[in-house]
Each structure stands twice: as C-alpha cells, then as structure tokens.
Amino acid sequence: MAYRWETPASVWQEDERSRQFELLASEGLGHIDWQAHAQGRLPDVARLLGASLPAGCDCAPIYPEGFAFCPNCGRALQRLPGTPSRQPGWWGPGADAMLPRHVPHGLPVTSLPLGDSLEERPAAPQVGRCDVTMPVPPNACCVFAASHYGFPEQRLLALAHTRGVLQYWDPVASLWHVMAPDDGAASLVFTASAYAWLPVLEPRRGEVAIVPTSAGLQRLWINPVSETYRTETVLDAPLVAAPGAMRRHIACLVRPEGTVRLWSARLDADEVEEFACPDLPASGWSRPIGYDGRLFWLHEGGQLAWRPGQAPQFTPWPPGWQPRLDFGGPTQSRDGRLWHIGHDGQGYSFLELGSEHPQAAPIDGARLGFANFLFRRGHPVVDEPWSNEHVEDLNQDDTLVLPLLRAFNNNRSQPSGLVLRFHKYTGRAEEALGSRVIPRTTVEWIGRRNVILDEVVRLSRPLECLPFVYAGCLWLHHPDWNEMRGWRLEEPA
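Now predict its structure.
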C-alpha cells in the first residue's frame, strides 16, 4: 500500500514498507522518471523543489515540501526555502535587459556592479590567482545561462548549440549532467550565424528561454529532476540569424522557401509581420544589437536595420571597405551615433551605422572593443572612438588589450570591465585574434583600480574566452582549458 501526499506544487507517494518518498508529479516539469534517479542527485532536487532533507534520521533520503518532522521517527528535518531566488540572472554578454536604453543592447555589457568587489583586490603590478575552479562541460564549445527558471535556487546551463547538447551543472554533487530530449523535442542545433537567445524575465517553472534552432524558434523548458528538456514551437521556419527583442517585439531572419524574410511578432507571438528580403545573405550574421529603437544585424556584406512596424533596411558597406567583426562591436560617439571599425585596404576607419549615407572617420591603427570600451594597443581610448589613446604607462606600448566584458555603471566617468592583455606582442591585431599562440596573457579588471586577476600561458583563439557570472563569482571559460576560473564577487557565507 502507498500513501499519497499532495503539496501546493507537487504530488508524492510514500511506500508503506520502506517509508521512502517518490515524486509522482510537479508543476511545470512534465513526466517524472524517479526510478532512474540516482541517490546522489537528491540533495540538488530537494533544493530545486523546496523539499525537505533528513537532518538526524535515516528513514528516507528526501521528504515532500513543507515537511518539518519525519513522519516515521518524528525527528526534525531540514526545510529548504520554496520561494524563487531573486538573484540576478546571466544570459551571456549581450542579453542584459536591465541596461538603460542609451546603452546598446546585444554587446558584451552587463549592469552587474562587478567592479565594486574586484577592485578591492591588490592592484597591479601584483598578479592574482583565481579563487575557485569548476570543470568545463563535457561539450566545451557552449554558451552559458544562469537563472532560477522558476525554481527556488539559481542553476547553470551550458548549451553546446553547434551539437544541440544541453548540459546542467549540479552544484551539490559538483557534476555536469547531459540532459536528454523528451519525445518530440526539437533539435537545439543552430550554426547559421552567431548565437543569441531571448531570456524569459518572469519564467514559469522550468521555463528557460526562446532559443534559435535550425528549424525555427523554440521555447525551451527543463526538467532537472529527470534530467530532460522539452520544446514548444514559436516559429516553424529555418532560421538565418539569431532573434532579437525591441520594445516588446521580437524579430529574426528566416528562410522558409529559399528566400530570406524578416519575421517579427509581439512577445506573446501576436501581430505577426513578415518582410521579403530576397537579397540578404543566408548565413554569417552577427548577434542582433538593439539601439535607438532599432535592431541591427551586421554581416561581412553590409548592415541590416529594422524598427518595429517598418520595413527593414539593408545597407551594403562602401566599395572596398570591409568590417572587422572580430574586433568587438559597435561603439558610440558623444553625439549618440553608432560606429563600427573596418579596413579599406589602405587603413582603418570607423563607419556610421544606421544611415543611408554613412560618414567615415579615419584612424591611425586598429582599436579593439565595443560600447565606449575601446583600446588602441595597450592604452584606452576615452573620448571619441577616433580620438588619440590615453597613454598612462609607456611600458604598455608593446601589449595588446582585448576587451571581453564591460560593466556599465552610471557613477563612473570612464568605462570599466574585464580584458585580456597580450604581453610582448607587436604584431597585427588580426593575427592575435586567430590561432596564433600568445606566450603570456594576463586577465585584468580595468576600472578605478587596475587589477591583474590571473595569468594564462600559451593562449590561442582568445575570442573563445567567455566570461559569465554565476553563484556570486565571475567566471572565465575557454574550450581548451580543463577548468573554468572564478573570482568571488562577495565574501563566502
């Protein structure tokens, strides 16, 4: 005989003989495969559900939500909170919805106050070391998301979108788990262009994001109990570029019948519009950038701008001018216009975005960065994008700085953020960003105080370095590393 226990969010069954509890159903999770569940996962499951764990008895390894005492021996249990965490989520550099409108969305800019903690560390030239490490996911070429997904605690996901593999980090067991697709779930593979997903700000239980796939847009749901995921179709059409959001509208490039079209709808998938764009390339687009009420997609062949309710506008680059998409992304001038760096065969220049007749501003060398976080060689550019660099230390002339993440803060007169500094490097920027091996690289935080967080020996393909924030730490990942490096943003409890 079995006893049935019902809580506000779940249904449990207690075996009369063993006194063990089995989860039958829980809100938003779909099918529960409890028998295949490893005992080692139960502490993580209890924290996700807000269930109870034994504190001084061995009657059962887990108890339903709200249980304060063991019904068998009467001993007190460890009750876990059942309210969703309000800890800020992380959806990758470029998906921070809390940024003000005058900051371009879609670039590696975050509103999290990272510098307030990192700048308390010993300043340069002292070289620091990471505080914590985490094993890289089994499929290391991935993007990260850290959120509560409607559960009481924040959890980390790693999506290897080139292979369609979703991976879940169990912080209690310190293990990565590969999540299996439910029957009928769509493939999560997307390789046509740069990747970007649309997070859900107020998710239902298990709801993750609207994700691009080769076959269309899908709403992704996870079931951490059974280690599975499912999808719901939002748009059934082959995707050309990743989706973007602008003022409660979403848009993406699709190719339903061999012709590229721009598809748009409101966030509730209502008021759908489509615009034919037969001359657009079918792959190779950047992540969408939101600024000044418009979405921009950049390509080696030109720029596409779209404002909700209007037809998209594609503007080819001037003849002979080639953008440097790997240098970072668009930056702003003091009058609010967006500019992107490129090369015309003779030298570098900035080109205005979003204009039918863009202006150009020649410069005397490559500049790496985005959103006013720019560097020429080892020195910051603190005025207009085409202004001379601000030289504070002549010893930095033989270094090259690659910005990874800007931390936006209204209280700071100059941008601050995470960078890589390549030492004793005097070659071209294009070569450093490729497969060339850099003998010595330092990971630095540049702000009110410059802090050297760590040192990397023999780094190649630096553009694959991916920063993210999870569990009160700033992390840095590279597919070639065996471990991800983390720096605490708060004192451990």
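The first strand starts at residue 2 and ends at 6.
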